Amino acid sequence: MLEKRRNSPDQSVDEVFQAYGNMLYRIAFVMMKIAFDAEDVVQDTLIKYMEQAEKGKAFETEGQRKAWLIRVDINLCKNRLRFYKNHPKIGIEQLSWYYEEEEDIRLMDSLMLLPFQYREVLLLHYVEGYQGKEIARMLKLTESAVRKRLERGRRKLRGILEGAD
């Protein structure tokens, strides 16, 4: 018979992880099929557990705790899989399939070499067609910061393209 025991301060997240971490990881890995995603799901599950503990929520038995952890783990996997289905991403290698002109492929390859802060504003401005004010609002930056990133990004992109010739 499972021992009846309430949450207590001595039942830390570390102890829960030691007891159930491998099981949670196996479940997440089978569902997600990618180690990094499975690790993220386990971490998110433990965060949810910490939030429950902070609220003072207690489990009557270890069986209830285990069932709750499994249910949260599975639900987080489903949520992540649903997100991936609704927001498919394209790998950098596949991006070139969408461009017919060699010049476009070279430009996109060069753009991917830029640091993220320049790449994101250049993509939003030139590819998606947003204006500086809109980009500033989206990225929570000042308009002058957006203009400066656009300027520096164009300069770095030009250097990369000129170096490739």
Topology:
Blueprint: H1 13-32, H2 35-54, H3 62-86, H4 92-95, H5 102-111, H6 116-127, H7 132-139, H8 143-164
Helix pairs in contact: 1-2, 1-3, 2-3, 6-8, 7-8
Structure description:
73% of the residues lie in helices and 0% in strands. The protein is an all-alpha fold and 165 residues long. It has two domains: 13-86, Rna Polymerase Sigma Factor, Chain: A (Orthogonal Bundle); 92-164, Arc Repressor Mutant, subunit A (Orthogonal Bundle). Helix 2 (35-54) packs across helix 3 (62-86) and helix 7 (132-139) packs across helix 8 (143-164). The longest helix is centred in the middle third of the chain and has 25 residues, at 62-86. It is elongated. The N and C termini lie far apart (74 Å). 14% of the residues are buried. The model is unreliable at 1-10 (pLDDT under 50).
CATH class of the largest domain: Mainly Alpha
Provide the CATH topology of the largest domain. Rna Polymerase Sigma Factor, Chain: A
Helix content: over 70%
Quick check: average pLDDT? 83
Fraction of residues in β-strands: under 5%
Structural class: mainly alpha
Low-pLDDT ranges? 1-10
CATH architecture descriptor of the largest domain: Orthogonal Bundle
Number of domains: 2
State the helix count.
8
Order of helices and strands: HHHHHHHH
Number of strands: 0
Q: Give me the Rg, rounded.
A: 24 Å
- The best one-word shape is elongated
Ends apart, CA distance between termini? 74 Å
Largest sheet: none
